[in-house]
Design brief:
Length: 360
């Protein structure tokens, strides 16, 4: 009762000020529909194919990602208004390959402020799929909340026949607005499936069913705008939290790829170029070559550079490797953000090893 009254007053005031919000920033639109009985969901829009535009409805490859604004995306799915009140915030509008750690840090700080508002039930982030899992993992490690955070994308541009974005967006809002979604960390939603940000990865560059979590499985699915979760809320083993509320810049961490005859000195070059840590996308479970390991050992012992051994295979478990830090289940792109956050927190190589090994 009191919650409804307070939320009515709050959002009525907000609704009376659309012009004010527009004047303050053309990127921000306030709750565009309001019904006191519905939960409030904030959508942060980053761009990607879900906001992609092509001049032909049959074009699904050659299109401009990050072209359509959040208000247009929401307008295209009127059913959203049956599930929640929406506030849309356009943070960036680019292909996700253009996003930087600074963009992701900025998004995180916006979300931290948003989830602190008592009347916000959940968060949706619209995002390009190419680096979606990186942002989702970062949010999972930095936004310490039981409120649902759902990162959503699309594989077909908004102008395509059978565009998947509108249904994905509707489903993401449904999940963010549902009480069943509380306490499940950051989730990734595409193609009617709900995955944990900790485990889900993009597995195919073109197909609609690209996001998978083969080993850990999905958290749930959506049918007729009803989220069905397979298990009660749980936290992934080894999930850590990092406080970035006062962080202004993240340390540089580079990823090196493993292959037959790899150049051992690329690791040194990366450090000379400013890397404060390295992640290796090793062969198999994390193999690096003998000459490569020699260089890595030197960087660890002489320059105290933390080096995480991960795997170029999609799944697998990287155990102890030489003097490096095993990534355990984390793929290189997720391990990179974990290492950046660990270095940012001032942790020693031993501390970082302990953090990664929490997964095991
Ligand atoms: N490369 C673009 C991006 O990641 C388009 C891919 C997509 O969103 O599916 O934003």
């Amino acid at each position: 009762m009191w919650r409804s009254i307070i939320s009515f007053l709050f959002f009525s005031v907000a609704l009376c000020q659309p012009f004010l919000f527009q004047k303050r920033s053309s990127n921000i639109s306030d709750f565009i529909s309001f019904n006191a009985s519905l939960p409030n969901v904030t959508i942060f829009a980053m761009g990607g194919t879900i906001a992609g535009y092509a001049s032909s409805s049959t074009e699904t490859v050659d299109y401009a990602a990050g072209s359509v604004g959040i208000a247009t995306l929401v307008d295209a799915v009127p059913a959203i208004k049956n599930f929640s009140n929406i506030r849309g915030v356009q943070v960036t509008n680019v292909g996700s390959e253009e996003l930087t750690p600074a963009n992701v840090l900025n998004l995180t700080q916006l979300i931290l402020a948003e989830v602190a508002k008592p009347d916000v039930h959940g968060i949706v982030v619209t995002h390009g799929t190419d680096s979606l899992e990186e942002t989702a993992m970062f949010l999972d490690m930095t936004v310490n909340t039981t409120k649902p955070i759902v990162v959503v994308g699309a594989m077909r541009p908004s102008t395509a026949i059978s565009a998947d974005g509108p249904m994905n967006l509707l489903n993401a809002v449904v999940v963010a607005a549902s009480n069943r979604s509380i306490g499940r960390g950051t989730m990734i939603l595409l193609n009617d499936r709900i995955g944990s940000a900790f485990y889900t990865t993009k597995t195919n560059g073109n197909m609609l069913d690209t996001f998978k979590s083969y080993e850990a499985g999905f958290l749930g699915m959506i049918l007729d705008q009803r989220p069905h979760f397979f298990y009660s809320p749980a936290t992934p083993t080894g999930k850590v939290h990092f406080d970035v509320s006062n962080t202004t810049e993240l340390p540089a961490v580079e990823i090196l790829y493993g292959y037959q005859g790899l150049n051992p000195n690329l690791a040194k070059a990366a450090v000379d170029l400013g890397a404060k840590g390295l992640v290796l996308a090793g062969m198999g479970a994390a193999s690096w070559t003998d000459p490569g390991n020699e260089v890595i050992d030197g960087l660890i012992s002489n320059q105290s550079i933390p080096v995480v051994y991960s795997h170029r295979t999609m799944d697998g478990f990287s155990d102890y490797y030489y003097n490096g830090i095993p990534s355990y289940f984390q793929n290189p792109q997720k391990a990179r953000y974990m290492l950046m956050l660990s270095i940012n927190a001032g942790y020693s190589i031993q501390n970082i090893t302990d953090i990664f090994s929490l997964e095991y």
